[in-house]
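Researcher: Here's the sequence for the chain we discussed earlier.
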Amino acid sequence: MLFMAIAYTTIALLTLLCLLPFWLIISGSFTSENEIIGEGFKFWPSELSIDAYKAVFRNPEQIYRAYTVTICLTLVGTFLGLFLTSMAGYVIARKDFKYRNSIAFFMYFTTLFSGGLIPWYILIVKYLEWKDSYLAMLIPALLSAWNIILMKNFMKSIPDSIIESARIDGANDFTIYGRLILPLSTPGLATIGLFLALHYWNDWFSANIFMTTEAKFPLQFFLYKILANAAVLRTDIAANLSAVNFTAPAETLKMAVAVIVTGPIVLLYPFVQKYFVKGLTIGAVKG
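Model: Thanks. This is the structure I predict for it:
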C-alpha cells in the first residue's frame, strides 16, 4: 500500500508539472497585454482579455478557410500515407521477397544523405510544376523511410504461421494484406498515423516556400503570417510614435495562436495513446 501511494503521488505530481505549461499558455492567451508587459506571465491573470483572439479572428472566413485546408491535407495525407507505408512495410517484411534487403538498404540510405533543399525546390517547382499547388504540401510527406522501417519491424512481429495458413486456404497477397495484416497492425498504424497527422498539421515550411495564394494557406502558415505582421506593426508604431503604452497584443497573440494550433491535436492524442505506446515498444526484448 505504501508503494502504491508513493507511486500514485509521484505520477500525480509529474502529471501536474506537465499540465502547468499548457495552463500557462491558456492563461496567457486570456491576459491583457499591459499585465504581461508589466508583471509577466501568471497562472491566474488579474485582468481577463480576449484581445488576442479578436486579433486572430478579425477575419473569421480566412481562419475557417485555413482550418479547412489543414484538416483536408491532414486527413487525406494521413490516409494515403498509411496506405502506402503499410504496403511498403508489408512487402519488405516478407521473407520470400527476393529484393527486400536491397530495397531496405536504399531506404535506410536516404535517412543518412539527401539532395538538399535547393534540388528539392527545383524538382517541385520546375519539373513537377507544383508551385502554388496543394500537391507540393501533400505528396512529398506521404512516404518516410523511418515510417516504413517502423512498419516493417512491426509486421515482422506477426507470426508467419498466420500467413502460411491463409495461403493454404487459398488467400492471395491482397487478401492476406487487407484481411489479416492490417487488422493485426492497428498499433503500428495508429503510431505512424499520429506521426503523419502531426507532420501535416504542423507543416508551415512547405507553404512558406511553395504557396503564394493566400486562400490556399494552411492554418500554421496563416497564423505565422499574423504573428509576423503583428511584430512588424508593433515595431513600426513603437519606432515612429515612441508609444510607451502601446498595447497591441503581441505577447498574448503568441499564446492564443498556440492554443488554436495545438488544441485539436491535444484532443486527438488520448484516443490513440494506447496504440501509440504499444507501437513504439515494438521490438523490445520480451522476458
